[in-house]
DNA sequence: TTTGGATCCATACGTAAGTATAGTACCAAG
DNA sequence: CTTGGTACTATACTTACGTATGGATCCAAA
């Protein structure tokens, strides 16, 4: 289900046309242009074809925006199960997006020009290649580390953290928690960054179920 | 007239924005999107800028077609040379990534599994469409807002913030600062979130140079 | 002084283009 | 036979979005 050879004929033809017309024109085609290229009389047929392709995860567009139709790398997204055995990922298209332009450093005293830069801040494209996933934080157990309720932490799968790293740990009762990890004599310590909260101790004799290490944080601020 | 540095400032900025937005979105921007990215209020200004660029042979579009604007010649990050031979190759349109898979909420007490999810955390792809840029924070003026030294703030161009929004302001001495913005009687107040620091006041009679509003924060944590 | 370019603003109009709704026909699988 | 998918048709509505027209200010060059 990943190749155009296994799509219905007209869907495969639409997919190829989107790609080729986009390359030729430098901008995506409209439904009318696709219809014309296929010898159809109205846009609705094409709309139905692209809707079917969208359901299959092969194209995407911004609803309501003109000429926003584009082919997605061809991979449909797969659910990620932390508790299950990790599968080897199929090859995915490497994102070409450059991320957000870096405008410099603020409070450093130098003027800002938002566009005089070759540097870019990349977030999902930085982490997406290594199986990272995101979690939304609930609660204030790590508030003194600047991890607030509502923030998103980016987690890199790693079952063997080093001391002092902030980890996602799954406890005996299957609840997940975000804490700083320490391996001590005879036990593991999961340390909150909130002076009103106590650490969690897990005996060394128990299997410590660490899902990963926090590698980044994102916060929406408006 | 060899490089974009020798275009008038705004024309050079438009040219770069067309390229970067096209790459990031996968389709060319509209005049309105360009206007927003530049902090302008209406499309006509941008139209005039692109018209000037078109006269200089740097961009082209199909008259009357929506979203057909493209840069002529050159690679996205390369300086554009007017005097050299160039191909009329439009900027290429790229597939997009979906961002980081969301694994749920941590500390909510429920197991993390459940990744039958269609949700993705998008950062640069969320913001890239509106001309946002990133700044690296230096100092601790907003530390009580959870904005730490070394963090990256994501800034959306907006010359007219509302009270209480965290803004990037350029002061008289051309230094940039990150503060919470308040318009008061007879003056503007730029409020730090650090009890050891004083607010900055700017008289209303002075032009308040706001580059934009902080819409997001990113922190590398390992 | 005049002219042209750069840069910003506004409103109004008309077309481009997506979407909604409705219909038909054919084929394969259950 | 029923159902779902594929594939085609039409009209109508709505929003997106480019363009026209008009205005202003500032600056540099002739």
Quick structural overview:
The structure is a homodimer of 222-residue chains. Chain A is α+β, with helices and mostly antiparallel strands and 222 residues long.
At the fourth CATH level, what is the homologous superfamily of the domain at 133-218 in chain A? Umud Fragment, subunit A
The shape of chain A, in one word, is elongated
Return the average pLDDT of chain A rounded to an integer: 73
Query: How far apart are the termini of chain A?
Result: 40 Å
Number of helices of chain A: 4
Give the % helix of chain A: 10-25%
Order of helices and strands of chain A: HHHEEEEHEEEEEEE
**Uncertain regions spanning at least 5 consecutive residues of chain A:** 1-5, 74-98, 108-118
Which quaternary structure do these chains form? homodimer
Rg of chain A: 24 Å
Q: What would CATH call the class of the domain at 133-218 in chain A?
A: Mainly Beta
* Largest sheet: number of strands, sense, barrel closure of chain A: 7 strands, antiparallel
The CATH topology of the domain at 133-218 in chain A is Umud Fragment, subunit A
| Spatial arrangement of strands, main beta sheet of chain A | 5-6-11-7-8-9-10
Secondary structure class of chain A reads: alpha+beta
Give the name of the CATH architecture of the domain at 133-218 in chain A.
Ribbon
